[in-house]
Amino acid sequence: MPTRERGEIRRLSQEVLPALIARLGASELAELEVAENGWRVRLRKPAGGGSDLAGERRSGLERRHQPRPRQEAPAGGATPAAAAVPAPEGATATAPAGPSTDGRGSSADGQPAADPVRTLLSAVGPGRGEPAAATRVVGRELSRVPATSPAVGYYLPLEGMATGHRVHAGDVIGHIDVLGVRQEVVAPADGVVGRLLAQQGEAVEYGQELLRIDLVASAAAAEAGG
Amino acid sequence: MFNKILIANRGEIALRILRACGRLGIGAVVAYSEADRESRAVQLADEAICIGPAEAKRSYLSAPAIISAAIVSGCDAIHPGYGFLSEDDSFAEMVIDHGLAFIGPPPEVLERFASKAGTRQLLARHGLPTVPGSVGMLRDDEHALAEAERIGYPVLIKPSAGGGGRGMRMVRSPRELEQALTICRSEARAAFGDDSLYLEKWLEENRHVEVQVVVDRYGHGVHVGERDCSVQRRHQKVVEEAPTPAFDAETRARFCEDAVRAVVAAGYENLGTLEFLVDGDGRYYFIEINCRIQVEHPVSEMLSGIDLVAEQIRLAAGEPLGYSQADVLLRGHAIEFRINAEDVAHDFRPQAGSVEAYLPPSGPGVRMDSHLYAGYEVPPYYDSLLGKLVVWGPDRETAIARGRVALQELVVDGLLTNTSFHLALLENQHFLDGSFTTNLLDRVGSAAFVAAARG
To answer: What's the ipTM?
Structure first.
């Protein structure tokens, strides 16, 4: 890893992360994602019953196939540092805030900021900070888990596997075509299909996220809440 | 020529193949397991694709995963590197059945040379002397005892498949033989999925010398000299050099020419290495062929200036060799030190962990092939090879002196390496005067090297 990346990671872990954690803890947000200039940090508060605290995987093929800026710091390389830093103790899940857009793939397109740390922190206020040009803050609902690809191949979702479809843990929700042999993609939890992350016929790699499943409890809460 | 190659390996060799692709102007996709997500080859490649979890059986040894990765990423050839599936003829066949090229010998050639016993018979018919050994595979213990009696103790038990010293034992008596057979069978089964064994006469004081051959599919072949791999620890090569101190110039030339003539006549194709044992009187016996690029190939590259990996790719694409033996000029002396993550003081126990600092040596005649970088985590799932330090000099003395300087320059912080062992070896009289044999480490004892390294 180039020294520059190491320096950047040190800066992230020592300066940016502690500040972000503090702000998330004080906020009503359940999830916080900050992307800037080639790296991305996401923080999530723990859900009631063992939620997805794992850092988001890179969407391998999709992202890898894009040309990568070679000299830019960690762009396209390692998603730096702790994408999976647990939120502070006592933090509770609350309603989603902010636009529920996805930060995927947008991490490398930011403009350099004059002072990234200051820009970031001003953007991540305890309320709803205005995102600066180079940063984005995304509030997210908690309690969703990804269904991932069990193999390298072409993704074939089952018909009707659209957003809003109800699934149970263990349900076959699609297949990966590996040299003409189908391997099952299985729902990891009871819930409702949320965001679709791969298209029919798309080349996917092992472990790639194919779709997200919003867990039943939170989905019900969301429905109840309108 | 190929448009895009899938590199189905890891560590330093993935990086080496990536470099060859760059040199040839061919695109490359690095296939990696989850444990190698942060590897240097993945970082450097234009494209990388995760093929499975850390467990090699589900990633680097999974033919469907690798071939599927090649297809979805638009590759037209697969380079298997060394180890893993590199010499698996059914894998090579499957690759070709899916419309891709296998960078290595064609499957029928791999199959012909897959059995060591069969290969010895084949090359013996083409004029290569072989070590006296059992006729065919050992059927059972009784057969083994009878064959050992006929050959004469001590004998070496060897598995038909694989390499790297696993499943191998030297025994001096019928009692030792009976005990060792069970162990060798289970080791061979575990390592290669094949427990067939054969016997070979054990040459007490031998050297391990191999010949690098490069053969196109039109029957033209050259050798790129020999390599002496006699410095071994438990049948694992540790240091390799060329030329061998065992031969004079005339014997060398005859030895290498015999090897390439026989292997071309036997229908071999692509890169290969013929391994021989050389006894105290300079007689050589063919033992096996490696149908792949080898860890120690840079030794021959240093002497010849030939990029062997690029040659391998070129020949697999069907290009003719394009030069003759007279064009292969071997200059000077080269030595390769395998830098392993090992705790020398504790029986060379493999190490895993974080590389805190990495400073490779440099200077004239110094080459370091390594995938290390500061911050890299050496995963515990694979072999312990961290890199290869190769030094060149116009003569052996200069190469040794450069080796000493380079080993002292090398810094790998955060985990233990066998660098101290190499430095001690360079003080050993048997190594310095070139009289060493494969017994050197077993006879002197690794402990002596460790003590010397500390002193």
So the answer is: 0.85
CA separation for the pair B97, B82 (Å, rounded): 22
SS3 per-residue string spanning chain A: CCHHHHHHHHHHHHHHHHHHHHHHHHCCCCEEEEEECCEEEEEECCCCCCCCCCCCCCCHHHHHCCCCCCCCCCCCCCCCCCCCCECCCCCCCCCCCCCCCCCCCCCCCCCCCCCHHHHHHHHCCCCCCCCCCCCEECCCCCCEEEEECCCCEEEEECCCCCCCCEECCCCEEEEEEECCEEEEEECCCCEEEEEECCCCCCEECCCCEEEEEEEHHHHHHHHHCC
- Is B16 among the catalytic positions? no
Residue B447 has pLDDT above 70, yes or no: no
Cβ separation of A65 and B47 shorter than 8 Å?
Answer: yes
- Residue B29: strand pairing partners: B6, B47
Closest chain B residue to A203 measured between Cα atoms? B72
Q: Which of residues 147-166 of A touch B (CB under 8 A)?
A: 151-154
Residues 6+ apart with CB under 8 A from B197: B137, B138, B144, B157, B158, B159, B160, B167, B181, B184, B185, B188
Over residues B114-160, the pLDDT tens digits come to 988 889 999 999 999 998 888 878 999 999 999 999 998 999 999 98
Return the structure tokens found at B87: 């010499």
**Active-site option among B120, B207, B292, B367:** B292
Signed CA dihedral, B429, B432, B435, B437: sign only: positive
Residues 6+ apart with CB under 8 A from B217: B106, B269, B315, B318
- Does A205 lie at the interface with B, CB-CB under 8 angstroms? yes
The model carries a pTM of 0.76
Record: contact A68-B46, CB cut-off 8 A: yes
Answer whether B68 sits within 8 Å of A178, measured CB to CB: yes
Average pLDDT over residues B390-395: 98
Residues A63 and A55: beta-carbon distance below 8 Å: no
C-alpha torsion angle, residues B441, B446, B452, B455 (rounded to 10)? 180
A17-61 pLDDT per residue, tens: 777 777 777 676 776 666 666 666 777 765 433 333 333 443 344
> For residue B288, which of B420, B451, B158 has the smallest C-alpha distance?
B158
Cα(B348)–Cα(B339) distance, integer angstroms: 12
Residue A126 has what pLDDT? 38
CA separation for the pair A215, B5 (Å, rounded)? 41
Q: In 3-state terms, what secondary structure has residue B344?
A: helix
Mutation to test the A interface, candidates B30, B34, B68, most A Cβ within 10 Å: B68
The DSSP letter of residue B160 is S
- Distance CA(B69)–CA(B66), nearest Å, equals 5
| Packing angle of the helix pair A17-26, A116-123 (nearest 10 deg) | 10
Token output for A144: 């969703």
Chain A hits for B38, CB-CB cut-off 8 Å, are: 1, 78
Lookup result for tokens 């040794």: B400
B72–A6: do the CB atoms touch at under 8 Å? no
* Residues of A whose CB is below 8 A from B375: 1, 6
